[in-house]
Amino acid sequence: MKYSTKLSDTIHLLVFLYLADGNRMTSARIAESVKTNPAYIRQLMSALKKGGLITSDRGQANPTLIRETDQITMLDIYRAVEGEKPLLHLDIHTNPECGVGVNIQLSIGDFYREVQDAAEKKMQEITLKDIIERYYEKVETAGLKAAIWADGMTDQTTLG
Amino acid sequence: MKYSTKLSDTIHLLVFLYLADGNRMTSARIAESVKTNPAYIRQLMSALKKGGLITSDRGQANPTLIRETDQITMLDIYRAVEGEKPLLHLDIHTNPECGVGVNIQLSIGDFYREVQDAAEKKMQEITLKDIIERYYEKVETAGLKAAIWADGMTDQTTLG
DNA sequence: TCGTCATGTAATTTTAATAATAACATCAAA
DNA sequence: TTTGATGTTATTATTAAAATTACATGACGA
Predict the structure, then answer these.
(1) Does A82 touch chain B (CB under 8 A)?
(2) How many CB atoms are located within 10 Å of the residue A96 CB?
(3) Between A49 and B152, the higher pLDDT residue
(4) pLDDT under 50 in chain B at which residues?
(5) How far are the Cα atoms of A2, B19, B21, B23, B48 from residue B159, in angstroms, in the given order?
(6) How far is A66 from chain B (nearest CA, A)?
């Protein structure tokens, strides 16, 4: 299949929202940066809304972060858009008449759980703030800071 | 897409090989338990061979584990069959003309790396031996031990 | 109030990673 | 030499995800 990029796209979306800082962002505008379509962005925002991470009102473009960026973890975002989807997948199609097969998969599942917990623990330590700070560093080292940010964040055309 | 079950299937395969203990296993036989086709099993075995985990000779059914089960980690197996495939995926399709988009994805990548490392560290702590032991526990608690294992592992018909 | 623009959401189509399958050359052993 | 197994490649089918379409609904300004 296609790989899911929901988490990446949603983080992108949230950083974008943060950087917009008050300037009302439309799903169309965000979609431009993520290079996708507005409906997909709205689907992600819908999930974020249900997850209690943003507000968004029908009819007007005014999505806003509810929590501070250091109070939003990567795990929060993952849960909002991917739910309980695991990173590793058991093969549930093994021969059910084979006691070996079934029990092996159950055993593997126990250890996948451990791997999942380790990954989620790390995801819980990473906040949106961390990612935004890292982003600023990247922009700086790329020497793009001046070009993009010189005249301030108020000029949203530079966000595109 | 479909979810990859390569890791699960390969662990299954290896446990099966271990339990067979000397009894020459064919790809067809293993495929029965995993409920897949022999060619797929051979593909996995080919990867394991390249990864230095098993031997397997053309023409005769005689695949064997090279290392002790406590010397084979889940990460070894993952590397053999999935290579460097990450658990989380960046969206590399973001608008390249958007400096924000590109740099955000790069930042996210840094943190995905941390999550990946945490997961892989845990995978490195889990050995095939651990999984086999857990498997025995499952079989016991399921009260199937007697039924399946009573007359010893020599009767490979009970493995199916 | 009406027209415009935005969101919210469901339904459908397209894309892409994976497993399934087929085909066959090669080798081993009875 | 016949049988049966592996090793490998190529093709097809499956399936989860993104892309797209469609439209009802709400906000806001002229």
Answers:
(1) no
(2) 10
(3) A49
(4) 145-160
(5) 35, 8, 11, 11, 22
(6) 21
Mapped onto helix, strand or coil, the DSSP state of residue A142 is coil
Strand C closer than 7 A to residue A89 Cβ: no
Q: How many separate domains does chain A show? A: 1
| Residue A101 lies inside a defined structural domain of this protein | no
Estimate to the nearest angstrom the gap between the alpha carbon of B17 and the chain centroid. Answer: 12
Residue A111 lies in a domain: no
Sign of CA dihedral B139, B75, A111, A109: negative
Q: Kindly report the length of chain B.
A: 160
Q: Give residue A21's pLDDT.
A: 86
Does residue A43 belong to any structural domain of this protein? yes
Check whether residue A43 has its CB closer than 7 Å to nucleic acid strand C: yes
pLDDT digits (tens, 9 = 90+) for A51-69: 999 999 999 989 999 999 9
How far is Cα A104 from Cα A127, in angstroms, rounded to an integer?
A: 36
Q: Quote the CA–CA distance of A20 and A75 in Å, as a whole number.
A: 23
- In B37-66, the residues whose Cβ lies within 8 Å of chain A are none
pLDDT at A156 over 80: no
Touching check for A126 and chain B: CB below 8 Å?
A: yes
Q: How many CB atoms lie within 10 A of CB B57?
A: 10
Q: Each residue of A83-118: pLDDT tens digit?
A: 999 999 999 887 655 667 789 999 999 999 999 999
- pLDDT digit string, tens, across residues B130-144: 999 999 999 888 765
Which of A104, A114, A117, A127 is best to mutate for the B interface (most B CBs within 10 A)? Answer: A104
Residue B110 lies in a domain: no
The values of phi and psi at residue A17, to 5°, are: -60, -45
Domain ranges, residue B136: 6-84+127-141
pLDDT at B143: 64
Interchain CB distance below 8 Å, A91 and B34: yes
